[in-house]
Structures are given as structure tokens and as C-alpha cells.
Design brief:
569 residues; alpha+beta; six-stranded mixed β-sheet
């Protein structure tokens, strides 16, 4: 057994997937909406028996390794290292230099985060700790978010080298501005972690006066601010429980909300929410509350975030904080954030509220301009039901008839943006389903007895090579096929037959063989007739009679499947 297979066998697929997707029991399996594409009806199945997590719609997922690679967007070796650690297996396999360097980067950031956090509590840095406390943060919150301080420009560099990490790797980490000098020296440190909780970057805030106020880690192989949400590793459990996520700006807003009990809050590190951010949140919830700053920059970011979330199947609400405050100020001044959330705005209400600042809504020109702004947003929505709901909301709010709004929407001549969809593949092919039946129910002999064709005439049976290999080896693991796809096909067959008797399962299998025989016979028919001289009526007649007799013995219609249908899997 390979080391990867051994590690996978030690992993509980349900526990692994549950860290990313809320699962519901469905018989012997578990179901969820797919984390790899948007859907409203769950088609993502987790099978404990087969150690498989697989989407029957987009066909992504697989065993523990494949699932982790897909969900974390990491390579095989990194996924293997993560699972090996979880399974308590020591890896002795040689890794590439690139993999070693990535592993070193994670270790470097882990050591750095621990060092900064410890430094904040040193006696000589008490003044910095008091500064953090003066910002309203408790020691418990500081520990939860591993907030720290860089109080020595060279100590961290020396510590990393003493751990055996090559000097060039330390320099390449983005933490140092030169040999031995910490770029975050003199700053309060906020570690930034990825979805799995690994520290991948830092934000350093100046303590007193100075510029820049905030200093961030550069983009790297492990850090891209367009796909990292601050605090998501801490909030993901609560997001799943509460059924919603609150998105704010930056670290302090996130930290303060968590301290105030709003533990489903996460922070963006850029100017707005991106589709990459949305993809991570989609694994956990379909309801998002945007609570960005109320200034011009924050309002612009809110509009951009709403655009990014359009057509992603989210219910989006906007929380507006009064008097231009941010969430950090609001909760520290005793504000009730839950009350604000209860009075959140729909997207249309937000557009109208902001439109009131830009247009004079007491007159027809301003009202018309604002409505057209709204229609330009609605025009980009792909879901007709959502379009209708938005238009009805505008109709009620602006006292304009629905018919007028629809006419105006149709009159907009600008092209709609091309909708990006995940192409849904067809279900499993005939050869794959037959192979699953053979492996599940031991129908190998039944197949051989009822299917007389060899591969010569089976080229129009989709995935016949899979069936041929499984029947030849009588062991799918040794057949040289995609094991994850085969297991998924088995789950599909098992699910379909969950309430069937052994006899009815056999009948279904024979019906599938009949379809395979029809395809093979049709291919044979066209091959035969192409080789017959059509000017020789006797030869053509004899060939036709032989084929008719063969069809009779096979128990299928003599009429072949039309060519244009035969070539379509």
C-alpha cells in the first residue's frame, strides 16, 4: 500500500469535510451544497464507507487528499503533509525544494507570530501592552487573535536561524528588510491566518505617531489579500451556526466585534470583498451582512462588494453605523450591534439611501437618475426571480409601476456582462455505471454471459475502456482507472438502488447491458454496411439478414441507433 493511501485510510472523511462544509445525514451518507460551485439543491455527497467526498453536479472532490487539494487550492505534497500530521504519520518521502520552501515559510510565520505575541507581555514592553488595553482589548482577546509586538529588530532573525532555517529562506519570507532587521520593528502585530489557521502574513500598526500607520506583508505564494479574510479561521464555526457572516474592514473592527460577542465577523484586507472571498464564505453560509465604513471610501467599497456578490446566490444585507463611526468605535461606545443588524438594509434600500445623498429625490430628474442607477445593477443579475423581486422592491420604494420598470430595463441597450457559469458535466457514462454495478454486486459473470461484444465494436459506448478494465481485473483498484470517479459512480448506483430488491437490481443491470448491446450492434451495423458494395443487391440483402438475425438473438431492435445520436455520449 502506498504511503498516500495509508494516510487517506487513517482520515475520517466526514470529520475532514465538516471543517469546511455543514453536513446533513442522508441515510448511510451525508449531504451538503457543493463547496466548489453555487447550487441550491445539495448534490455534494460524503460517503464514510468509501472515504469519499464528491459532487455529482460539477464532479469535483474525491478522497481526503483530492478534497483537501481542491478546497485549499494546494498541491499534492502539501495536502499529504497536512493529512499526515493529522493522521500521526511521519513522512520520510523526499520532497521537492519548492515544497520544502513553502513548508519553511509556514514555520517561519508560526515562529514569528509566537515570538511577537510573547514579546508583548515582556516587562520592558509593558507600555505597549497598556496601549493595546487602552484600545479596549482584553488580554483574552489579545490571546485569541495572537496580537503581539515587535520590540527587538534582530532577535527574531537570530531565533529563526537557530531553528535551522536557511538564512535565504528567512530573508525571502517578507518579514525582514535586510540581514537581521525586522521590518515590523516598533509596531503592534496582527497575525493574518488562512482558512486552515496557518499564519501567512502580518499587519503592523504604529504605536504612536508615524507613517505609514499600517504596514503589511507583501503578496507571496501563501498570501494574497484578495482571497484572505481576517479572522475567518476563528469565525467559520460561528458563521455556520448562525447562518450568516458579517464582513467589516480590517483587523480592529473584526477584533472588537468578536470581543463584543459578534463572533461571526471577518475582515477584508483590501478595498472591497472579492469573488475569491465570496467563494470561501459560500462554503459556510449564503447570507452576508456588509458593515464597511460610512465614509466615501467605505461606501464605494460597499458598492463594489455588492457587485462582487451579485449572481453568487447570496442574500446580502448592509449594516449602516450612525454618525460615520466604524464598528470598533460603535461597540466600544456601548452601541448595540445586534440592534443595528436587525435594522440592516437590503441592496435596493442601500442604493436608495445612498442615492438620496447624490440626487435630489424630491424632483423627477433626480428620481429618474437614481432609478436608472439601480436598473443598471439589476440588469447584471442572471436570476429572473431575483430580477423580479428587486424590481418589485424598487416599484414599492420609488412609487413607480412595475410595468414601467420592466419597460425601462428592456430599453437599456448596453450589453449584459457575460455570465460566468461552472459548466455542469453530464452524469456518469454507461461504461462507468456498468463497471460500478459489476464491482458492487459481483455481476462480472452476468456481464460476460450477456454481452458478447469485444472492444472492436464498442467505441460508441461511453467509457467502455473503464468497464473493460474493471471486468478484466475484477478489482477496480488495480484497473488503472480514476478511483475517485469510480467510487462516486458506485455511490450513485447504491443511492439509486437503496430500496431495490436484489432481483430488481439485476433487472436494471440487464437493461443497461441491453443499451450497451444496442450501441455495439449499431456500430457493427454501420461498419458492415460501409464495407458492402451497395450496387450488389444480393450482398447487401444477405448482410442485412445476418444483422437482423444477430439483433434477434441479442434481444434488441434491428433498427440501429441514428448515427448523430450514437456519437453523443
Amino acid at each position: 500500500m502506498s504511503i498516500s493511501k495509508d494516510i487517506e485510510n487513517r482520515i475520517n472523511i466526514v470529520e475532514l469535510v465538516s471543517k469546511y462544509v455543514p453536513l446533513k445525514k442522508a441515510g448511510a451518507n451525508f449531504k451538503a451544497c457543493c463547496p466548489f460551485h453555487n447550487e441550491k439543491t445539495p448534490s455534494f455527497i460524503v460517503s464514510p464507507a468509501k472515504n469519499l467526498a464528491y459532487c455529482f453536479s460539477c464532479h469535483k472532490g474525491g478522497g481526503p487528499l483530492n478534497f483537501l487539494m481542491e478546497i485549499e487550492k494546494i498541491e499534492f505534497r502539501e495536502a499529504l503533509q497536512i493529512l499526515a500530521k493529522e493522521a500521526g504519520v511521519e513522512l520520510k518521502t523526499d520532497f521537492t525544494r519548492d515544497s520544502e520552501r513553502r513548508s519553511d515559510v509556514y514555520e517561519i510565520y508560526k515562529i514569528a507570530a509566537e515570538t511577537y505575541h510573547a514579546e508583548l507581555f515582556l516587562p520592558e514592553n509593558r507600555e505597549k501592552l497598556e496601549y493595546v488595553r487602552s484600545r479596549g482589548l482584553t488580554d483574552e482577546t489579545v490571546a485569541k487573535f495572537k496580537i503581539g509586538y515587535s520590540g527587538n529588530p534582530r532577535e527574531l532573525f537570530a531565533k529563526l536561524k537557530s531553528r535551522g532555517i536557511p538564512e535565504q529562506d528567512v530573508l525571502d519570507s517578507g518579514i525582514f528588510v535586510g540581514p537581521g532587521r525586522d521590518k515590523f520593528y516598533g509596531r503592534i502585530i496582527f497575525p493574518i491566518a488562512n482558512y486552515s489557521g496557518n499564519v501567512v502574513a502580518f499587519t503592523g500598526r504604529i504605536v504612536w505617531a508615524g507613517e505609514p500607520k499600517y504596514l503589511n506583508s507583501p503578496a507571496s505564494k501563501i498570501f494574497d489579500k484578495s482571497s484572505i479574510l481576517y479572522g475567518l479561521h476563528l469565525a467559520k464555526g460561528e458563521i455556520g451556526k448562525r447562518g450568516s457572516a458579517i464582513v467589516v474592514e480590517g483587523q480592529m473592527d473584526t477584533v472588537s466585534l468578536h470581543q463584543a460577542g459578534v463572533t461571526n465577523a471577518v475582515g477584508i484586507s483590501g478595498t472591497a470583498l472579492t469573488k475569491e472571498h465570496a467563494g470561501y464564505l459560500k462554503r459556510l453560509t449564503n447570507r452576508i451582512f456588509l458593515c464597511l465604513d460610512s465614509d466615501d471610501a467605505g461606501t464605494k467599497a460597499t458598492f463594489a462588494s455588492v457587485e462582487a456578490l451579485a449572481n453568487e446566490d447570496f442574500e446580502v444585507r448592509i449594516i449602516r453605523i450612525p454618525n460615520g463611526k466604524d464598528p470598533d468605535e460603535f461597540v466600544k461606545n456601548g452601541g448595540d450591534f445586534n440592534e443595528l443588524q436587525r435594522h440592516s438594509l437590503s441592496v435596493v434600500e442601500f442604493f436608495i439611501a445612498e442615492g438620496g445623498r447624490r440626487y435630489d429625490l424630491t424632483g423627477a430628474p433626480g428620481k429618474t437618475s437614481m432609478i436608472r442607477d439601480l436598473l443598471r445593477f439589476i440588469r447584471g443579475l442572471s436570476d429572473r426571480i431575483e430580477v423580479d423581486m428587486r424590481l418589485r422592491e424598487v416599484s414599492r420604494a420609488m412609487d413607480v409601476s412595475l410595468e414601467t420598470l420592466y419597460a425601462e430595463l428592456r430599453g437599456i441597450r448596453e450589453k449584459r456582462p457575460v455570465e460566468t457559469r461552472i459548466e455542469k458535466k453530464e452524469g456518469f457514462e454507461l461504461g462507468e455505471i456498468l463497471a460500478a454495478y459489476c464491482a458492487l454486486y459481483g455481476f462480472y459473470d452476468l456481464y460476460s454471459q450477456n454481452f458478447p461484444y469485444t472492444s472492436a465494436h464498442c467505441r460508441d459506448i461511453p467509457s467502455f475502456s473503464v468497464l473493460e478494465r474493471v471486468v478484466a481485473t475484477k478489482n477496480p483498484e488495480e484497473a488503472g482507472i480514476d478511483p475517485n470517479r469510480h467510487k462516486a459512480a458506485e455511490i450513485a448506483v447504491e443511492t439509486q438502488n437503496s430500496e431495490s430488491t436484489p432481483e430488481s437490481i439485476k433487472i436494471k443491470f440487464l437493461e443497461l447491458i441491453k443499451e450497451a448491446k444496442r450501441r455495439a450492434y449499431s456500430t457493427e451495423y454501420y461498419d458492415t454496411m460501409e464495407n458492402v458494395d451497395q450496387n450488389d443487391s444480393l450482398a447487401s440483402f444477405q448482410a442485412t439478414m445476418r444483422l437482423q438475425e444477430k439483433a434477434r438473438k441479442l434481444g434488441i431492435p434491428h433498427q440501429p441507433i441514428p448515427k448523430h445520436l450514437l456519437k453523443t455520449p
